[in-house]
Write a structure and sequence with these properties.
Radius of gyration: 15 Å
Distance between the termini: 24 Å
CATH architecture: Roll
Structural class: mainly beta
Number of domains: 1
Number of helices: 0
Number of strands: 9
Strand order of the largest sheet: 6-7-1-4-5-8-9
Length: 97
């Protein structure tokens, strides 16, 4: 990976449940929605993201790439909206916006 690039593996998006327990199928049309993924590689100048962090990003600001028959998303670090990491002190959520 070069410079500020981050390679992300998408999390599976299946059906969801609303707050009231209603099942929303994966095929339902929703407005602009952000996606979660897991970082599998990062460039040398990436400062705020580590490998295995969960990141939140806009699925429209991405470039898809296939490596070894698996699909990944290539992002710039600045296109990541939030990072959820387990490496922070206990008692903190690890979610930073």
């Amino acid at each position: 990976m070069l410079n500020d690039r981050v390679l992300v593996s998408l999390e599976e998006t299946g059906e969801r449940r609303s707050g009231g327990g209603i099942v929303i199928p994966a095929t339902a049309s929703v407005g602009r929605r952000l996606s979660w993924g897991v970082v599998v590689a990062r460039g040398g100048t990436v400062r705020h993201v580590e490998v295995e962090d969960r990141v939140l990003f806009d699925p429209e600001d991405r470039a898809e790439v296939e490596l070894h028959s698996r699909s990944y998303v290539l992002l710039r670090e600045r296109d990541i909206h939030a990072v959820a990491a387990k490496r922070h002190e206990s008692g903190h959520t690890g979610l930073y916006l």
